[in-house]
């Protein structure tokens, strides 16, 4: 699949980005920066910000059950996006990597204001959010429909005035699974699932996967991701 597979009427093909960290390094001054990763999960991306992007210090925030071990230059703290347990003006960059839509809808505005609070003057907020459409999301929707919360996250970003908007862009992120078993292992045991997966959901997801995969069971697609970058004046 290529960017052109998004369909007729697209203004221009979107860039295919294999690794979002590379895009961030083009857009943000990460080297030597103090970075807050809001919704860091087990801290894997936070560690890459130090080891690959040269960040001086990264603090990751997420629910306690998702956090992994800390490492050199990386501190992981239990907390929520709408009540960050860090000081005012402590960070050069705040990153929300596909995490805003996991915040309760009535707290999304507060989460963005919290990000603004902890940025230094001139600091940057980077928010990355996947778009809920395409073949991958069609399968996911069977057992974990995030279309509404992702739309609400985009609406929160559109109305946010707590920082100056620097740019908004979109790219295509490749998704690949070698088999349904790999899809099941990676996507059907996520900590963000909001309800149990029933036998009927499992069967429907398997059928949808097979309909979109090759004869050898490989599923490959491009997923649109939208990015907003803000700056603290």
From TrEMBL:
> What Pfam families does the record tag this protein with?
Methyltransf_11
Q: Where is the Methyltransferase type domain?
A: 36-127
> What Gene3D superfamilies does this protein's entry cite?
Vaccinia Virus protein VP39
Keyword presence, Nucleotide-binding: no
Q: Which InterPro entries match?
A: Methyltransf_11, SAM-dependent_MTases_sf
Gene Ontology terms, MF aspect: S-adenosylmethionine-dependent methyltransferase activity
Which terms are listed as keywords in the entry? Methyltransferase, Transferase
According to its UniProt entry, one GO biological process term is: methylation
Protein name stated in the entry: Methyltransferase domain-containing protein
Organism source for this protein? Frigidibacter albus
């Amino acid at each position: 699949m290529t960017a052109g597979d998004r369909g007729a009427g697209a203004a221009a093909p979107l860039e295919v980005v294999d690794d979002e960290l590379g895009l961030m390094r083009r857009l943000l001054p990460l080297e030597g920066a103090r970075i807050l990763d809001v919704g860091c999960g087990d801290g894997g991306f936070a560690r890459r910000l130090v080891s690959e992007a040269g960040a001086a210090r990264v603090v990751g925030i997420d629910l306690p059950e998702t956090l992994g071990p800390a490492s050199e230059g990386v501190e992981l703290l239990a907390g929520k996006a709408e009540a960050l347990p860090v000081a005012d003006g402590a960070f050069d960059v705040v990153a929300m990597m596909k995490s805003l839509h996991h915040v309760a809808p009535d707290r999304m505005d507060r989460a963005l204001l919290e990000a603004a609070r902890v940025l230094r003057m001139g600091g940057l907020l980077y928010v990355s959010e996947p778009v809920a459409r395409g073949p991958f999301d069609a399968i996911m929707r069977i057992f974990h429909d995030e279309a509404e919360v992702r739309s609400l996250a985009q609406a929160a970003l559109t109305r946010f005035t707590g920082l100056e908007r620097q740019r908004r862009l979109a790219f295509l992120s490749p998704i690949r699974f070698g088999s349904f078993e790999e899809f099941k292992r990676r996507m059907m045991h996520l900590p963000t699932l909001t309800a149990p997966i029933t036998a009927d959901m499992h069967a429907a997801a398997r059928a949808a996967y097979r309909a979109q995969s090759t004869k050898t069971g490989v599923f490959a697609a491009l997923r649109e991701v939208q990015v907003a970058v803000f700056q603290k004046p």
